[in-house]
Write a structure and sequence with these properties.
By secondary structure, this protein is of the alpha/beta class. It has one domain: Rossmann fold (3-Layer(aba) Sandwich), CATH 3.40.50.1360. 25% of the residues lie in helices and 17% in strands. The protein contains 6 helices and 9 strands, in the order E-H-E-H-E-E-H-H-E-E-E-H-E-H-E. A 6-stranded parallel sheet has the order 1-9-8-5-2-3. Helix 2 links the parallel strand 2 and strand 3. It is globular, with a radius of gyration of 17 Å.
Length: 258
């Protein structure tokens, strides 16, 4: 089955379409279950999306019933410029009526990052109960070498099968990080990859191949076994991709797991 790749003129168009779809997905989750769960991504690409969610789409999302989690975090204080939490706080959290008790950042104040990872596993277990996390929507990005969250090529974390959060040392700055694992991601109802820029074109073309090796291109290992994966891509990032069913940006009414 060909991947669901939706190509847009630029990051602004991509973000606007993703914001509309995200709103519909969260509203559906809240109507069905009384609450919804959204995993936020770091990096520069989602910044435009977060600003749209905090402005044009703010009143369309039932923030009081939405719980926010993170896909990964740099092991720095939440006030540090490298912090994924800080990015979300400045662009989104400070501007929407999401209750503080619904916001679940990855902790970075433990002396041992492994202890922090265990603490986040406990947070996920408290929210989801028995069994693996089943997020309603996960936002992810794509690195130039094919990483996603803080799952980098050849990382031992890719082999993790039981824990949902692990501490890793990444070939990036800063190197110490926490990340959700594949077992924590694959049960999500819906997964959005946001990919923009010509520097992502080669990685995207490789990740979307049916023969892609997740050890070399970790994003290829993120497959939702309960719902769907949608790739929101700008034209620059799509430059090397030669797949079928590329969309013009129209948003379908797929709701994922429900």
């Amino acid at each position: 089955m060909a991947p669901d790749v939706r190509v847009f003129a630029d990051l602004n168009a991509l973000s606007a379409a993703a914001a509309e779809a995200l709103s519909a997905t969260l509203n559906h989750a809240v109507r069905a279950d009384g609450r919804g769960s959204l995993v936020l991504s770091g990096g520069s690409t989602p910044r435009t999306l977060y600003k749209l969610l905090a402005s044009a789409w703010c009143d369309q999302i039932p923030w009081g019933a939405v719980h926010l989690f993170w896909g990964d975090e740099r092991y720095v204080p939440h006030t540090d410029p490298h912090s994924n939490y800080r990015l979300a706080k400045e662009t989104l959290l400070d501007h929407v009526p999401c209750p503080p008790t619904n916001i679940h950042p990855m902790p970075t104040d433990f002396a041992d990052p492994n202890a922090a990872a265990r603490a986040y596993d406990a947070t996920l277990q408290h929210y989801f109960g028995d069994g693996p996390p089943q997020f309603d929507l996960v936002l992810l990005g794509l690195g130039e070498e094919g990483h996603t969250a803080s799952l980098f090529p050849r990382s031992p974390a890719l082999a993790e099968r039981t824990r949902w959060t692990v501490a890793v040392t990444a070939p990036a700055d800063p190197p110490r990080r926490l990340t959700l694992t594949l077992p924590a991601l694959v049960h999500a109802a819906t997964i959005y990859f946001l990919v923009a820029g010509s520097n992502k074109a080669h990685a995207l073309s490789q990740v979307l191949k049916a023969s892609a090796d997740p050890t070399l291109y970790p994003a290829a290992g993120v497959q939702s076994d309960a719902g769907m994966v949608i790739w929101w891509v700008d034209q620059d990032a799509a430059g090397e991709y030669r797949g079928t069913g590329q969309a013009s940006g129209a948003i379908g009414n797929k709701e994922g797991r429900r």
